Inverse folding.
């Protein structure tokens, strides 16, 4: 018995999907489905939106926008970042198709999306760890918790770098932070939703 080929989703096909509370996106034909966000996710998004709004109030050349959105540059790509910043001239067109330059893209990971990423072992960093110690934390929803921290050798997307990491427990979110990404010289591709090389490292000689 033959197997049917997977559906290659275009942006128009995604736009035609029912409004059922899920967020639908497509990246080069692959359908991405995100369930309705939890309250904690929305609280974090609003805090970031407030902070960015204060900064952008002093920089009128940019406009802050939020999902739901319709960012599509090709027929097989349609994405909806949680928050994103575009030039004010493009925002004033009031046309999603005219938003071509995303100066900043923010995606807030929720427990649901974190579990989805953990299930994709090929995407996560591999760790070589050394001695640990306990450290207290206050998370976004106000809970206080204690986790072990220690130095680890991170390997992700072909890069390798040492860093101080927090060791997660069952049901914790799995995150790769900005500090680790900088050490690995990686960046997040918001369209393909994967890690990519950040480019040449700028350095200077000391006389």
């Amino acid at each position: 018995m033959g197997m049917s080929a997977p559906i290659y989703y275009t942006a128009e096909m995604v736009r035609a999907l029912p409004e059922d509370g899920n967020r639908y996106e497509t990246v080069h034909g692959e359908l991405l489905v995100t369930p309705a966000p939890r309250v904690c996710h929305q609280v974090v998004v609003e805090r970031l939106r407030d902070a960015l709004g204060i900064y952008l109030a002093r920089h009128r050349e940019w406009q802050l926008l939020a999902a739901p959105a319709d960012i599509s540059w090709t027929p097989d790509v349609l994405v909806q970042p949680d928050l994103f910043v575009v030039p004010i001239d493009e925002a004033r067109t009031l046309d999603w198709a005219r938003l071509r330059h995303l100066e900043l893209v923010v995606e807030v990971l929720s427990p649901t999306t974190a579990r989805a990423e953990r299930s994709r072992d090929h995407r996560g960093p591999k760790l070589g760890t050394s001695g640990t110690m306990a450290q207290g934390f206050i998370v976004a929803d106000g809970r206080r918790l204690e986790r072990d921290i220690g130095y680890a050798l991170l390997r992700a997307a072909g890069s390798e770098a040492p860093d101080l990491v927090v060791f997660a427990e069952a049901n914790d979110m799995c995150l790769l932070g900005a500090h680790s990404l900088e050490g690995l010289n990686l960046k997040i591709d918001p369209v393909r939703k994967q890690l990519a090389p950040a480019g040449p490292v700028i350095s200077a000689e000391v006389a």
